[in-house]
Every structure is written in C-alpha cells, then in structure tokens.
Design goal:
Layout lengths: L2 E4 L1 H4 L2 H12 L4 E3 L2 H14 L5 H14 L9 H4 L10 H10 L3 E3 L8 H4 L5 E3 L1 H11 L1 H13 L8 H10 L3 H10 L4
Parallel strand pairs: 1-2, 1-3, 3-4
Helix pairs in contact: 2-9, 8-9, 8-11, 10-11
Length: 187
C-alpha cells in the first residue's frame, strides 16, 4: 500500500485535509506526518484564521491521530542533517518520509522538493491534485463514493454537489474537479 507523508501545506485547508484523510480511511494509502508537521499547519492556521481556536485545532489533531494511530513519524530528526534541500526548513518533511519509508511526499511546494534530491531516496514529491487524481484514475467508483460520503457529512450547513466541487477547486484540486465533471460523477 502507498505510504505518503502529508506536508503541512496540504493539511492546512480543511476541505483538502478532509479529502486526503477520507481517502486514507478508505484504504487508498497510509498517511504519515510528524508532530512538527502538525505544529506547522496548526500554527499557520491560527495566525491566519482568528475565528479558529487552538482548542478546535487540537481537537482536529486528536481526531486525526485517533483515526490513524500509526501515522506519527518519530526519530526522523537523525536524517535531517544529511539532506540537501533548497529550503532547509523543509528537511524535516523529507526526513519524516525517509524514516517512514514513504514513497511520496504530498505537498504544494514541489519546487522545494527537487527530484534530484528525492530520487536517490526512492521518494517522489506530488501535488495533492496529482495524488488524488491518480487514485480517481485507478479506482473511480470508490473515490467518487468516498467524496460523496464526505459531502453528505457536511451538514452545517449542507452543501450541494456543485458547491462541493467549488470547495475542492478552491482547495487546488482543479484536475480532480475537471475529471469528476468529465465523468459526470454524482457527488
């Protein structure tokens, strides 16, 4: 099964985080993250969204950890010093992938994870749109069912399928939304 480290920037937006976690719960892949990744996305979200509280985000993190008890990567720090990255602040993410033996890092910052640095480690950086898109291509019925169930759970307030596609598009899943529309998927 695919193992993927989720970078902080893909855990930051709620709709994207929900899609990634729903697909993990559906058995499409196994997610990995570290305490430092959690701290990064929650810190940034609190700084940018004054309507959210630290307690709310701590609850989200607790639910994530309960749903995926083996997702937390520890001991990755020992790899950081030997990793050459354009942005040294991203070494911890790659180090977590090395420690977890993950094949992928899901991130929006593809330029910060150059192929030349990742290839020798057997790791690939992929955008969330490509990551989810590959699952949609491989198993469209199950992915559509997972997204339909996710949308159905959004009841405060409830949203239409069209509104949900708009949320996914704003979350950056433009290729996924286009594929769902081409398929005539009923969300």
């Amino acid at each position: 099964m695919r193992l993927a480290v989720l970078d902080a920037n893909v855990l930051y937006p709620a709709h994207l985080r929900d899609v990634l976690l729903r697909l993990a719960a559906g058995g499409f892949y196994r997610p990995r993250w570290s305490a430092r990744i959690h701290e990064e996305w929650t810190r940034n979200l609190l700084a940018n969204r004054p309507d959210l509280t630290a307690e709310q985000l701590a609850r989200t993190r607790e639910l994530m950890e309960r749903a995926f008890p083996d997702a937390d990567v520890e001991g990755y720090e020992r790899h950081e010093g030997g990793l050459a990255m354009p942005d040294p602040d991203d070494r911890h993410v790659l180090a977590a992938a090395v420690e977890a033996e993950a094949g992928e890092v899901v991130t929006w910052n593809l330029g910060d994870f150059p192929e030349v640095a990742l290839r020798p480690l057997g790791i690939e950086a992929v955008s969330p749109d490509s990551f989810v898109g590959s699952m949609l291509e491989d198993d469209p019925d199950r992915v559509v069912a997972a997204l339909r169930a996710l949308r159905a759970g959004l009841h405060r307030p409830p949203i239409t399928a069209s509104e949900y596609l708009g949320h996914l598009e704003r979350a950056g899943l433009t290729g996924v939304v286009a594929a769902l529309q081409r398929m005539g998927a009923d969300l």
